[in-house]
């Protein structure tokens, strides 16, 4: 047995003994996961088991498997981290914590942060103690992110931030924000931007959730009035935040596409089973041949997408350039998720038209809301149009 | 007949647009949804609409109707569609009233339609039983009794069924499920013992009911048309209601498109309005083309109904398939083009997206109607 | 009976007695039509009947029904012309002559030409004696038509033209060309263009057919070297040809979309019948449910398209603005034609893969070639992209 | 296994690309098409390919093969696909040779595969009978005789059937049309009396044959595998050949995309290269995404075959459906983006469009494979 296989065995055993049965699910659906942070929102019950699982994972640094041990990680090789992911998936163990700190901010800080910043911020992320939100978009600066207007003024011993952010996911429960600000209003638009870290628990910060068409409010609008940040709260150089910001966006796209927008693919709530239940069967086949064709198309597309994520990782490991793969994933994952959402409600027929109350199963309501929520997938984290622009420019070399 | 509205129809459209935009902008749907209104539409608005004569558009003057056609009904529905106005126009006029008009005895027509035209009486047609439109898939049974029939079974997706005064129930009197023959239509008072109605709250803020019939007794006089031959009424009723729905969809599509186009012209990104980006321009132009085709088939199908054209079933399926596809495209492109703001509840485009979905699945989606069209055309 | 109905009766009777049986076809397929002109190519046999039909139509001015009588037309009202068209269609009579002179050049000349030009050119077009071709595109000027480079120099008593044109449909059999030339190389690109009429039967004109992927050569490349045109051969003002050219393009798009790209819709070669034949049936339905769904979609789309052409004509008659309808038609007709072509070969299966020779019916080969030819529909006469640009700008008012 | 080519496979690709681009650019296909070549591919090129060891890639060394896998065969086919190289790789190696390798006795394998590996022997598999791929829809019958079988029936779309030395014939020995059971595979010399072969000329310049079998006698030793259980060989053979075809398609798609992209970068209109127009950029980017997905599934399916993965049938259908859709998109977008020039015979994009269509319909189109996939997945 080679080292990796041995690692796999150990990991499997550890998961078996560490992840409470109650959290495990064969459908691949996340449950029991927490976002971490002081306000510690837990997505699903039982909360105690979720915290238990988290604490056991923290012990081993398995929330941030590839981060160095000194920052709370496990210092795993990429190949080992992949094994850990695979085994957790196989055993139906949810990620102990899912957070922007882990997916986006941490990797960026590892690359661009000072030693002091890493020491201060990474371990609490890896322990799920502090949660982060992303202060990028503004009402007037959506796809054209660099046109942001939130001001950052140097007040000698600190910075003062005034302005507003929108689409800040989890701002209502986050402890800190990594925030793009305009530090030099006179400079060309890409050259006057800084990335600054803001403690959300201070006067002058106001957060207001935004209600979406799906009825949920995963995003907020955030208002800053003379909000304070220390001088050591800049990541990367002053006015040089755009480079850091772009790197962070890459991690975001990767995070979005690797977590994906997909629901269960096996089990009784898998689309083929639903189609049989809601459309009926004929000779054991889904009775509606058009729905059946769309189903097969969706399953195949999903398979090819997953294979491409795998292949890209393998190519990267083999040293090949996979530069803008994240744009490809972000684009395709969100477009596929929208198609999937459409197909699911189409399968449900008029049972897929419910909003709440009598007459619909909770599962049916959930599908309808998931369908609505999926429409945002191709907007948040960089619209599909922006991804296509990036691919055309960076991969295909087409001129502006 | 030229595929344009007559002067009278154009005048009716202008009146309707003025009235609807004043009395029932999209905010009215939000109010009904958010209060939430126990009925789901405004009875006082419906009263005003009836006073304008809209409740009686396709019915004879002797019942208080305007003796106009489905083209005129379509004109009004299209305007209602623009602001997503909730009203019993579909349930009570296009479906229920039309069923009475086509199938009921003279006495029954007088009794029911007079109330319908005055806006006093709400009707609902209870036909669907499964998760999708399938007009003949009926297992609700009506069993002969000495004085009439006993109805037992359950219905779903009964538009305005929760507030209807009378229900038109499609029940099986012979044959087996999915047979076109053996269906019969009964007019049943909604308060008859044995009827249980559950209002559902839909994604579009509208509502449809689930209705249980537990040995509900109905007088033999309340049979519409001939026994076992209810499909001969149901088919043209569904065709007319579907055509009306298509007009409503067209109104919504037009309004959503105008709204989206306007956003493309004012929203700035990268130092210019986003409507100057060629990729968005092409997509907007494609939408425009699809909408132009939708406009043509909507007026064509209404005129065909009014002139008694035998191609009505084919035309109805052509219209519903096209309007469903165009509404689908419009809803999705609308949200995407509006970007983040399009995802918020406070923006109207989401209301259109939701209403479009319900419309797509009402009376059969595009796939259903392509199948039906192919059957009608003999392949 | 009103006047129009009486006209319909008379017209029907005239068609019955005038159009030879041999040319008539219930499938709606054109046969026996000629392009007209000195070289008089006849599309189908029997040629004598085709000429007979032409001469009878010419007698009444029915080749150009709406043109004034003094120019060889019949002086019909639009409504009468529509009746004539309808009755010919109903009785399966082909148009006696189909030519660019009738569809595009004639209407433009009626609008912009001098009295002398009309007298000279219109009657021979209406009699099918002289055929015209269109000299617009150049190798470097496709969608960007106005960047054309063919030079036109004033030599005192005449103009001299040197340059090359491409995609000149029928240049190898045409008698004359209406041609866009650059008359003022120093002016801004739209302001130095003239529309000039060139006799193709003179030294310095060389025509070379272009072989398409479908194997046919409906287009030519045309070379001009010091070719002569008289001073009265300009249509519209010198250097003011762009306005005339755009109008002509509108007629072209109208011609393309009203003639359509469609094949038979009824009869044994109608797509549903073919699908039954090639895919088999089950319960009387086309056995392949996906093909059947595509078929219904295509037939419905075609219906909606035809209704829109009708509605637009009705709107125009009612005095409503239908400005850029021709772009909508051109775009949709060509996109639909491509879909139709794809569906037809899909129905034929591996029998739709033949090029020539044994193993395929001529009808099958024909479908394959029609499929290939249809790919050009969205390129010729203004690409689909150009049509979308026009719609976005002129109809939707979206800015450049 | 990582979804990347090994160093050896990458080396093979480089060798193949150099060889193919020198010996068989697209002009070679034009030459074969326009002369026209009586066979449709170059025998001398095939000889050279065999000398490079390509004819024996997946076969054992004892027969002169390289004992490599379908991944390596895919690498070579992909390179051939780039320039539309016509060769018997599909007919003789992926189909015929594989059938012999999987189904024949040791003696027969030796006899046939030795000739195959040396490039001397051309094989063809005669399975299709109708207008579309339907592996079990077989009405050609093989009837038992004292010494063997008599085959009667007709086949169509037999790749390289007109020049094959030996034919692998799928015939029915029991059951009725469309039954998977009851098929048997026979190896028949192409010159056997009773066989009539008609070469067809396809739109892609390639050729397939129609073959009539009029009481063709075949020795009992020439049965592959067990009687009535031919599908057990036919299925994996078709899977392998389909996977190989997908690799060839990928090569063509890649080449057509590169060619189109290059045109977008040099063709000027309106004072700028057309590749700067956003609508075209977005369409090109969408194509790129589809091609990336195609790349993944092609290497995955080849590796799955070589590692004996039980998911091969599902993966093959996934690959063929995807590659068919991507090829369709690429062919159409390629012609449209090249504009007028793309419609001319002298431009290569038309050759790709034509080859793509044949590839789409070979071994089942996307619709066929979605149906098959759904069957395999139990819905």
3D architecture notes:
- With 400 residues, chain A is α+β, with helices and mostly antiparallel strands.
- Chain A folds into three domains: 3-96, Orthogonal Bundle (Butyryl-Coa Dehydrogenase, subunit A, domain 1); 132-241, Butyryl-CoA Dehydrogenase, subunit A, domain 2, CATH 2.40.110.10; 260-395, Butyryl-CoA Dehydrogenase, subunit A, domain 3 (Up-down Bundle).
- Chain A contains eleven helices and eleven strands.
- Chain A has helices spanning 3-18, 47-60, 78-90, 100-112, 115-126, 241-259, 271-279, 289-317, 325-348, 362-374, 384-395, and strands spanning 132-135, 151-154, 158-169, 176-182, 193-199, 205-210, 219-230, 234-235, 281-282, 285-286, 354-356.
- Chain A has a four-stranded mixed β-sheet. In chain A, strands 2-3-7-6 form a four-stranded antiparallel β-sheet, with no helix packed on it. A two-stranded antiparallel sheet of chain A has the order 9-10.
- In chain A, helix 1 (3-18) packs across helix 3, helix 4 packs antiparallel against helix 5 (115-126) and helix 9 (325-348) runs antiparallel to helix 10 (362-374).
- The model of chain A has no long low-confidence stretch (mean pLDDT 90).
- With 379 residues, chain B is an alpha+beta fold.
- Chain B has three domains: 7-121, Acyl-CoA dehydrogenase/oxidase, N-terminal domain (Butyryl-Coa Dehydrogenase, subunit A, domain 1); 125-228, Beta Barrel (Butyryl-CoA Dehydrogenase, subunit A, domain 2), CATH 2.40.110; 232-376, Butyryl-CoA Dehydrogenase, subunit A, domain 3.
- Chain B is built from eleven helices and ten strands.
- In chain B, strands 1-4-5-8 form a four-stranded mixed β-sheet, covered by helices on one side. Chain B has a four-stranded antiparallel β-sheet with strand order 2-3-7-6, with no helix packed on it.
- In chain B, helix 5 runs antiparallel to helix 7 (231-266) and helix 9 (312-338) runs antiparallel to helix 11.
- Chain B is globular, with a radius of gyration of 21 Å.
- The two termini of chain B are 29 Å apart.
- Classes of the chains: A alpha+beta (400), B alpha+beta (379).
- Chains in contact: A-B, A-C, A-D, B-C, B-D, C-D.
């Amino acid at each position: 047995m080679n080292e990796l296989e041995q690692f796999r065995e150990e990991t499997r055993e550890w998961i078996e003994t560490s992840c409470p049965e109650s959290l495990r699910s064969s459908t691949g659906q996340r449950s029991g996961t927490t976002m971490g942070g002081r306000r510690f929102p837990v997505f699903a019950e039982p909360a105690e088991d979720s915290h238990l699982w988290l604490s056991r994972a923290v012990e081993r640094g398995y929330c941030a498997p590839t981060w160095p041990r000194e920052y709370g990680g496990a210092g795993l090789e990429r190949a080992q981290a992949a094994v850990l992911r695979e085994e957790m998936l196989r055993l139906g163990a949810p990620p102990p914590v899912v957070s922007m700190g882990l997916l986006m901010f941490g990797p960026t800080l590892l690359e661009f942060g000072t030693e002091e910043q890493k020491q201060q911020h990474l371990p609490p992320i890896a322990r799920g103690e502090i949660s982060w939100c992303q202060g990028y978009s503004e009402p007037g600066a959506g796809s054209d992110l660099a046109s942001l207007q939130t001001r950052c003024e140097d007040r000698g011993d600190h910075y003062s931030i005034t302005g507003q952010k929108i689409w800040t996911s989890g701002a209502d429960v986050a402890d800190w924000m990594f925030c793009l600000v305009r530090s030099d209003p006179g400079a060309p638009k890409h050259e006057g931007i800084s990335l600054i870290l803001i403690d959300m628990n201070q006067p002058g910060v106001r957060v207001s959730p935004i209600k979406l068409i799906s009825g949920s409010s995963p995003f907020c609008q955030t208002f800053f009035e003379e909000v304070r940040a220390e001088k050591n709260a800049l990541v990367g150089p002053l006015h040089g935040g755009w480079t850091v910001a772009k790197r962070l966006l890459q991690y975001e796209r990767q995070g979005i596409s690797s977590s994906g927008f997909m629901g269960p693919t096996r089990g009784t709530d898998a689309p083929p089973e639903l189609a049989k239940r809601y459309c009926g069967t004929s000779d054991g086949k889904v009775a509606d041949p058009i729905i059946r064709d769309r189903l097969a198309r969706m399953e195949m597309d999903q398979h090819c997408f997953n294979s491409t994520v795998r292949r890209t990782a393998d190519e990267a490991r083999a040293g090949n350039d996979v530069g803008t793969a994240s744009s490809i994933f972000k684009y395709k994952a969100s477009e596929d998720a929208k198609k999937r959402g459409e197909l699911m409600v189409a399968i449900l027929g008029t049972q897929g038209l419910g909003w709440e109350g009598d007459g619909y199963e909770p599962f049916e309501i959930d599908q309808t809301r998931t369908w609505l929520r999926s429409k945002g997938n191709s907007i948040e984290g960089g619209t599909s149009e922006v991804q296509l622009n990036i691919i055309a420019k960076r991969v295909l070399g087409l001129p502006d | 007949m030229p595929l344009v509205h007559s002067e009278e129809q154009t005048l009716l459209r202008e009146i309707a647009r003025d009235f609807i935009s004043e009395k029932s902008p999209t905010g009215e749907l939000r109010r009904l949804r958010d209060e939430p209104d126990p009925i789901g539409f405004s009875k006082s608005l419906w009263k005003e609409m009836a006073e304008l004569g809209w409740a009686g558009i396709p019915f004879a003057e002797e019942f208080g109707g305007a003796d106009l056609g489905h083209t005129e009904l379509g004109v009004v529905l299209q305007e209602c569609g623009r602001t997503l106005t909730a009203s019993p126009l579909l349930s009570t006029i296009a479906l229920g009233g039309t069923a009475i008009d086509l199938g009921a005895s003279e006495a029954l027509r007088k009794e029911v339609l007079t109330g319908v035209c005055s806006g006093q009486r709400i009707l609902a047609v209870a036909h669907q039983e499964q998760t999708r439109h399938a007009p003949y898939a009926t297992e609700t049974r009506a069993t002969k009794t000495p004085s009439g029939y006993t109805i037992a079974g359950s219905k779903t997706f009964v538009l305005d069924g929760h507030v209807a005064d009378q229900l038109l129930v499609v029940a099986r009197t012979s044959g087996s499920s999915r047979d076109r023959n053996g269906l019969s239509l009964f007019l049943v008072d909604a308060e008859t013992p044995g009827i249980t109605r559950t209002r559902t709250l839909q994604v579009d803020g509208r509502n449809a009911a689930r209705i249980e019939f537990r040995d509900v007794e109905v007088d033999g006089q309340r049979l519409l048309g001939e026994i076992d031959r209810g499909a001969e009424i149901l088919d043209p009723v569904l065709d007319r209601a579907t055509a009306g729905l298509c007009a409503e969809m067209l109104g919504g599509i037009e309004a959503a498109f105008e709204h989206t186009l306007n956003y493309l012209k004012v929203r700035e990104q990268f130092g210019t309005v986003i409507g100057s980006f060629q990729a968005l321009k092409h997509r907007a132009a494609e939408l425009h083309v699809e909408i132009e085709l939708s406009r043509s088939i909507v007026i064509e199908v209404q005129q065909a109904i009014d002139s008694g054209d035998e191609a009505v079933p084919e035309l109805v399926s052509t219209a519903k398939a096209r309007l469903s596809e165009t509404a689908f495209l419009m809803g999705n492109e609308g949200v995407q083009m509006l970007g983040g703001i399009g995802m918020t509840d406070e923006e109207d485009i989401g209301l259109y997206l939701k209403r479009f979905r319900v419309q797509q699945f009402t009376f059969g989606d595009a796939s259903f109607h392509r199948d039906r069209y192919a059957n009608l055309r003999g392949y």
